[in-house]
Amino acid sequence: MAGKVKWVTDIEKSVLINNFEKRGWIQVSENEDWNFYWMSVQTIRNVFSVETGYRLSDDQIVNHFPNHYELTRKDLMVKNIKRYRKEMEKEGSPVAEKDENGKYLYLDFVPVTFMLPADYNLFVEEFRKNPSSTWIMKPCGKAQGKGIFLINKLSQIKKWSRDSKTSSFVSQSSKEAYVISLYINNPLLIGGKKFDLRLYVLVSTYRPLRCYMYKLGFCRFCTVKYTPSTSELDNMFVHLTNVAIQKHGDDYNHIHGGKWTVSNLRLYLESTRGKEVTNKLFDEIHWIIVQSLKPVMNNDKHCFECYGYDIIIDDKLKPWLIEVNASPSLTSSTANDRILKYNLINDTLNIAVPNGDIPDCKWNKSPPKEALGNYEILYDEEMAQSDASDRDLRSRSGQSIGLKGNRSRDSGKSVLTTWK
Amino acid sequence: MQLDQDTGLSLTIAQIVQRLKGSSLHSQLERQARISLHRPEIKLESLKEDIKEFLKTSAPAEHIKEPLSYMRKSQGSWEKRILKSLNSMCTELSIPLARKRPANEQKELLNKWNEMGTDEPDLSLFRPVYAPKDFLEVLMNLRNPNYDNGDQPSFRNHLGLIQVPLKIKDIPELKDYFSELDLNAGQLGIDDSTQVPPGWLKCTFFAVLAEQDSAAAQQYVRQGCPTALRAELWALILNISNQSEDILYYEQLKSNVVQHDLLVDSLIYKDVKLTASNDDYYFVFEDYLYQVLLCFSRDTSVLEHFTYNSATPPKSYIRGKLGMEEYAVFYPPNVNFKIFILSVAPLCFLYHEPSKLYQIFREMYVRFFFRLHSISSHPSGIVSLCLLFETLLQTHLPQLFYHLGEIGAQPLRIAFKWMVRAFSGYLATDQLLLLWDRVLGYNSLEILAVLAAAVFAFRAVNLMEVTSLAAAEAVLADLSTLKVMPLLQIFLFATVT
């Protein structure tokens, strides 16, 4: 083909660079002509900012969507999902169906969340309805578990707000905004320990939406036994699964790093709880990932993105979306981790930059099945539509007209399971 | 003399009847007996004689303990060696084999029962009592004094490390024995990865579970268990029902652990830390392992299996109570706890209640796993497995066998640790469970030797190129990507012999 891909990165990680070099790509500086730029979220902000007015050409591709923060900032993700639910409801869409208590049947997958200080009054109202609940405070702009704490009394919020006001006026910017979410205090425990799921999801295009799930996700375990007891609210080793936090614990193990593969989780759940509930759980996880992407559609053809989804499963086997990360850590905590991340980047590049050729954003980005590696198709809008019209034809010629409720859920959900 | 034998026999019968009572097997037997009563060929008058005649003509009853005296002797001196090593460790560290815990210590232990893994006592002084290679050394030195294989080793001789003549199955016999693993039979572990799961198999399993038919369950799991039904099917095969008295029994063992401190506790603790805590699959279950293993070392019902195990239980007594049976604590034979740990850990994927997990493990142990670390001539015993493995390789892949022997990388030196741990810690858990399905199904550990040979066959090309033991070990270091059932099938049924 016409020449080699010229790449730039501002993240000096060997899992990236080894992958670029393996393809025989040529490293250039950001001021030269480049085809492929793996950039940090800070850089993407500058590239797409109004001031720089940088326009990407047809043969250039980057690893973030310009509006990625709509999904990957804790406050905006919740805002967007709330907005999406309202829109769906207005349209009378079946996905916005509610139960008798006014709860969304299919779109209730994010714990109740408010922005602070903006929604303080709304939060107080909610808190008073259920005064024994525990809430988790997270700074909107920080990652890896920094600045997170748990509260179960209103006075703690008041103290926090006083403290942060008096500390300095300069820091009263948007960075200091917090989200407060209802804490999932009944997480599913395995071996008595809490864990969350880290799943990698690749979006190759939003219009039409085409996303892939990485098969080799993992569970991240806390090193200390879980207890919902309020006396341990300050012990972050009990509550937070972030490796950045856990690795400072006395019991952190550097061989496996507290990571357990999703296939182990599946084997365990299927063996102890049964196949149906396990399949339902994983179907629901796929469903919430696809739904979370719908409110943040973007037209840009020069982008792809590998998101890191954090999901917690509660003891009733309901999955909760906790947050989405734009630049999942490429630092490897263990030997296995290193292999996993190298392969993750490799498979991501195979889909985003097929055959390692110079990108062409007019290409429709639908790679053949053999090129997917450890990715599997999670949702493909084009295929979903052709399938839906297929089914429409069939049902029109056929007889299945009744059971509206069931079918409406189906139309959204079956696409997830159809193309696995 | 005759009288003695008779009373001994009736005592044994009484014991068997006692053990059977209340089990589902008992009701099955009774039902079958009632049905048989109506068959014309069965005559009550001559029933006793007919049964005697049948037993005489059919195979002799399984040897109660070890029939070969040289095996018994080796087992005896191996036990002595271990006990000596344990005792000298006690003297060296000046700690008792067993002691009663003071009240405050009991309370503390009870409080942290569910998170014993967070404890970090200094165990650097404790050393493993033996390593698998010490045990292999003992097996290699076994000789039958009545057997003379001549001074001239002929070409047909067994060239392996194990030099005792035992009856083992050859390939045609294995094919016949494992006929359900045939290429034409539906297999879970192969067919479930294709589009259509073998639905017929699943239907059968549901029926078996509904009927609580233990014998049928055992027959069907030869073709593998569906993941979601495995826990139930295994419990059925092992006759474990987890009744309230079983839970109570477990609680009693737990209080024994709380009351008494044993030297083995520290050894168990250390070995869990060294194995499971660092294992990618099993670290999650660390605390369960203590809960099972500490109780196991206090369980006197395990002693019953010594009536058919070639080993004898080393016992210890609470200080000042020497010789008083009610104060006896027994030491699991051949205290290499890594082996125990790795036989409990995979079960944690199936059972999450400690009492049930405990019972399943205990039953698996007294049926199967004890054979992997005592010296006996049983077909599932470790000696026979080693011999079977070496013979299979020598006949199947003579060139490879010879090549590895020449460079001092005798295959058994590598495969021994796999077999002695029933492959736990080597295979991915899903594959390990598929393998253990067959162990339960055939009520035999011989499949371990077949798989070990199949692994060598699978890697034969690479192994032919190595020139040292270390290099051969490197080729076989990672078994976690292997698929058990295809390997077994290819080795047993698709290879021309």
From TrEMBL, chain A:
Chain residue ranges for the region called Disordered = 385-420
Which GO biological-process labels does this protein carry? cerebellar Purkinje cell differentiation; cilium disassembly; immune response in nasopharyngeal-associated lymphoid tissue; microtubule polymerization; mucociliary clearance; sperm axoneme assembly
Where in the cell? Cytoplasm, Cytoskeleton, Cilium basal body
- Record's GO cellular component, any one? microtubule
Q: InterPro entries given for it?
A: TTL/TTLL_fam (IPR004344)
Q: Which GO terms describe its molecular function?
A: ATP binding; tubulin binding; tubulin-glutamic acid ligase activity
Q: Which domain of life is it from?
A: Eukaryota
Pfam families this protein is in?
A: TTL (PF03133)
**What is the protein's quaternary organization?**
Part of the neuronal tubulin polyglutamylase complex which contains TPGS1, TPGS2, TTLL1, LRRC49 and NICN1. Interacts with PCM1, CSTPP1 and LRRC49.
The name on file for this protein is Polyglutamylase complex subunit TTLL1
UniProtKB/TrEMBL annotation, chain B:
Annotated Rab-GAP TBC domain ranges read: 224-443
Q: Where is the signal peptide?
A: none
Q: Which InterPro entries match?
A: Rab-GAP-TBC_dom, Rab-GAP_TBC_sf, TBC1D19
Q: Which Pfam families match?
A: RabGAP-TBC
Xref: PANTHER family: TBC1 DOMAIN FAMILY MEMBER 19
What is this protein's name? TBC1 domain family member 19
> Native species of this protein?
Sphenodon punctatus (Tuatara)
